[in-house]
Amino acid sequence: MKHLTFLCLVILCWTPTADAITMEDLFSALHDHPVTELDMLQTRASELRQQSVYDRFYPSISGELGYQRFNSPTNWRPVLPTESAALLANNEALPFSETLRRIGAELSFPVFVKELFSQGKQTERLLNSARARTRLNLLEHQAVLVTADAHLIHMNSLRKSLTARKASLEKTRGDVILKVENGRIPETEKIRMDEAITLIDLTFNETRRQEIELQKTIEALTSIHLKQPLPLQQVGEINAGELYALKPLQERMKAGEYGVQAARDKLYPRILASAKWYHYYGEGYNTGDNVGDEYGFYGLTLQMPLFNKPAYTAIEQAEIELHKEKARLGKTEIQLQARARSLQETLKLLDNSRDLAAKSVEHERRLLDVAKISYASRRMNQEEYLRYEEKVLSAEAKLYLTKAQWWETFSALAVLYGNNLQQLIQ
Q1: Which candidate among 132, 228, 321, 391 keeps its CA 20 to 30 Å from the CA of 199?
Q2: Range of 337's domain?
Q3: What does the CA dihedral 277, 279, 280, 286 come to, rounded to 10 degrees?
Q4: pLDDT tens digit sequence for 93-104
């Protein structure tokens, strides 16, 4: 029994809690969030637009029921003179009636419509653009999560530094109060010490306010309220190939080329097939008998546009849209290439700055230790001592900010090249 109790305790100790959240959880929550679902629905809408073009290749079949009342007997099918003479000779009803009822079906389909092929390729490119845009939006949202968490780490670490600095000042403040009460130093030194602590409290509150904003950003994309920042660890390198951020525009430009072709294709002949079948019911006007008969046809139609002014205008409009897409792509490509180079150089500088900032923190802390001793022995005045306290806090804040900026730059660069941050960061 004792062994069983011990085993249960071990299992409980090693079972992770439900509150243990990881970056993987944030990425998964983002994938299932309505903001991502909306992008997926946009892609689905593009798929249906493509399908609507290909649907026009399918035959159209419709059934029909009809009732017609005429003011004079009307035929429901052509009657040859020989057939009419034979019917009259035999005193049979002619296919003429004032009231006609019919049931039938109609079939039509395009045999050759050139513009449909170009429109199909155009919608395919637009679908590729929508898919690329959806993926790019997901990657951008991932980068927002990583950046927000990195700055949340920055703010959390800064609050810890502020707490440490406040504790250091309060310890020194205790010594200052004793010396003021003994008349060894003026009371102004106590006031300046109180003011230094008040400024730290104000900075602490401002830091907490920024934390709340960052938590709101993460919650808006994941529906998860992150109480504490999550540690970030790089597990992969950025694959810097082609600029994936250009893909949506590249596909739209190719779609524009097919759009111009589709507009020109309206000037090509088209071949259409159709077939109809009806069964008519009526009352023969010459005999009064109820009669019924079938009538139908099938055939091919060649339509040749001889003059179509709207088509020429549509071609010009499509060409203008294509030029706009090319200009937009060229402009964006220049901007993104410059941004990629800037981010790569910035990332290298931040690597170096991160190491230098860590050394700076170490140096300022050592200098502060010396300053405390000097101030306690009155070899340094209070203002000089407080500057050393401020330098330590400034150096620590610089270190935390540099780390956050590194993650922000890393994420932005990964998105430009289409890297999935879920595979690079954990």
Answers
A1: 228
A2: 20-58+113-268+308-424
A3: 110
A4: 888 888 889 999
